[in-house]
Amino acid sequence: MAGELVNRVAESTLVTLDLEEFYPAEEKASFDVKDFLFMGLILKEKDFREALKNLDWSSYSNKNVAVYCSADAIIPVWAYMLVATYLEPVAKRTYFCEEKDLDSVIFRQIIDNLDTAPYQGQRIIIKGCSQKPVPVSAYLDITRKLRPVARSLMYGEACSNVPLFKQKSAPTPSL
User: pTM above 0.85?
Assistant: First the structure.
């Protein structure tokens, strides 16, 4: 029928990947070793161990926890390891990073573990707008992960996208 409207976007073979769907459902928390330093500068082993022993760790239950020290102090590696021994039974996961970097670290882990088989040889649009704070680093990480397998990568929406990469020849399926 002449004049019939065709939704070419709906009929296309584009695969839309929304990084917002990877956003961790678990709550986040932070553990700043600074709060356990003598005069904000020195880690006293005996006092540190006692403070950790007496801390109510339940506030970290099933959370992604950033462990760091915001003070300009030299913290021995074993101190972070000791904190991890207390967090391991209660936290979802612990990360060595500042709280502001936690989303980037979690997204990197999720993207590194992403199975790329469904994206092999596909034309992929990485959705740009999201309601949750997807870190810019996640967009770089997903590009790094998908570029070797994708036929093409774009950013934005199907109706309005920015081309990023196009294979000169279609990638061969991995066995």
Answer: no
Strand partners, 152: 123, 166
Whether residue 148 is contained in a domain is answered as yes
Range of the domain at 18: 8-24+117-166
Query: For residues 147-174, b (16+ Cβ closer than 10 Å) or e, as one string?
Result: eebbbbbbebebeebeebeeeeeeeeee
pLDDT tens, position by position, for the chain (175 residues)?
556 654 444 445 899 999 999 998 889 999 999 999 998 889 999 999 999 999 999 999 999 999 999 999 999 999 999 999 999 999 999 999 999 999 999 999 999 999 999 999 999 999 988 888 899 999 999 999 999 999 999 999 888 888 898 988 655 555 5
